[in-house]
Amino acid sequence: MCVGFGVEHDFHFSRTDLRWNPATRTVQTTVRVFTDDLEVALRKHGGLNDDTRIWLGDEREWAKADSALAVWVEDQLDVRLSNIPVHWRWVGKEIELDVSYLHVESQPMADSNRVWVVRNSMLFDVFEDQVNEVHLHDTGTDGVQTERREMLNREWPSVTWDASAPSLPNDD
Fold first, then answer.
1. CA dist list (Å): 134 to 13, 55, 94, 143
2. Tell me, what's the pLDDT at 33?
3. What is the number of domains present in the chain?
4. 2: which residues sit within 8 A by CB, 6+ positions away?
5. Does 51 map to a domain?
6. Burial class (CB in 10 A: 0-12, 13-18, 19+), 82
7. What are the pLDDT digits (tens) for 73-130?
């Protein structure tokens, strides 16, 4: 088990909600992750030593935290919609005790039937037992909302979903 600053825990989990917004034609995304795990990942990703204090959500927060988080999300969350790569724009973060919420948004995309390909490798290089839940929400051109939820891990880090295909009962 990797130990960073903060409380040690045995459960390594993140949740990423990706939501198609038909009004802006963007994917609005929130990543929810344990703050101590995120700080360990930022140190590793940035090549920082263990003495670097990141202190997310604290008045003494590392000055480069937001830019480092934006780069980390861009590197760890690879999304394609109908084979067009998504590029993330940093929106911001919220820190609530031991959980961090990272908000990013895609560039405007074509408003058509979408095939989602999502690879979420967040924290796989830090924790062997890491699980990343991915929850996809789409709204078709007919206004019908659909969703898909997958649990990704190191052996199965990606999901492909044709949001235009009819859902089967219990398809989540």
1. 11, 26, 19, 22
2. 97
3. 1
4. 40, 126, 127
5. yes
6. middle
7. 999 999 999 999 999 999 999 999 899 999 999 999 987 778 999 999 999 999 999 9
The domain of 119 spans: 13-162
Does any domain span residue 107? Answer: yes
Query: How far is Cα 168 from Cα 123, in angstroms, rounded to an integer?
Result: 31
In a domain, 2, yes or no: no
Considering just the CA atoms, what is the radius of gyration of the chain in Å?
A: 17
Residue 81 contacts residue 114 (beta carbons within 8 Å)? yes
Residue 68 lies in a domain: yes
Give the three-state DSSP class for 45: helix
In three-state secondary structure terms, 24 is coil
Global pTM reads 0.89
